[in-house]
């Protein structure tokens, strides 16, 4: 029986449990044996009972649980070849040659590196007499399939990552709470949201809550943003708006790549020109937590099932796929290309090619 392992890696996101559940059950339904690797690559390097066989009922109730129940970690050892050698040995000792990883671009990059090195790792294990030729013989090829778990929606070539809509929902609810008090006291709030180098959460939160101003990395504000912000806020106030909401992505910067700090935005709103009673709210980790929204439960289930199909369809020499969603269809894309395009966005931002950065993000993001 084919053995397929699933792990979650990197930052946690709501919906990761749904992906684990779908992979385990689809693997079993397809006549394979399902395994979970606990604590991301750390579990793969440590081996032992960090790699566990899973039964159908072991993932019962996973759909509605937040975070990741099989744990996640950042693992320095896996960044180095000796760590990956140990990981490869642990996989073979468990008879596993297919690995589904639900994580961000870092985790997916690591996975593809592991796949590319696999034949060399097998040779080294035999050479170092850690395993025999007979032991490695059935494991000539490593199958890797990626699932994108991230609240940031920062991977190119997919419209949504598992977790981003849950996080957006949480941000919207939080802004609604803040709205009520802001409105009562006629206050201004500067709200910092997560997203690392990606402005999707900030922009979509701004759209969804009718914020007055949004700062995001891919499309920095005009050079004279202080005046721009002041005049927009002034105009909204003159139209009778009793509150002001400014959303700042954690990776926001101006067009010269200088970080835009929430404290600076606050000082501006509170300063002589506007004189607004202004508060800062950093939403922080509530954005990651809690139950997955219906969309993420659906996405993780459909994509998890497709990941198992992709493992079973894999042919030698065909590059590792990542399971994406494009125009509402679950599709497979080249994992390496998706990661490369994501990295290209970051490079465009560094080169101040902001229009190109926007184009390379997802379709709904472009205009
Ligand atoms: P994310 O997957 O959310 O982007 P990280 O970038 O922290 O998060 O990656 C998670 C883990 O994936 C790292 O701790 C490391 O173990 C592994 N990893 C990331 N990048 C690489 C790489 N270039 N080579 C090998 N392993 C990597």
UniProtKB/TrEMBL annotation:
Region annotation N-terminal catalytic PFK domain 1: where it falls in the sequence: 1-367
Domain Phosphofructokinase: 3-311
Annotated catalytic residues: 152
Binding site for Mg(2+): 105
Binding site for substrate: 150-152, 187, 194-196, 250, 279, 285-288
Protein localization: Cytoplasm; Mitochondrion outer membrane
Binding-site list for ATP: 11, 74-75, 104-107
Family: Belongs to the phosphofructokinase type A (PFKA) family. ATP-dependent PFK group I subfamily. Eukaryotic two domain clade 'E' sub-subfamily. Belongs to the phosphofructokinase type A (PFKA) family. ATP-dependent PFK group I subfamily. Eukaryotic two domain clade "E" sub-subfamily.
Assembly mode: Homotetramer.
Free-text function comment from the UniProt entry: Catalyzes the phosphorylation of D-fructose 6-phosphate to fructose 1,6-bisphosphate by ATP, the first committing step of glycolysis.
Descriptive protein name: ATP-dependent 6-phosphofructokinase
Gene source species: Pseudovirgaria hyperparasitica
Lineage start: Eukaryota, Fungi, Dikarya, Ascomycota, Pezizomycotina
Residues represented out of the complete protein: 13 to 379 of 772
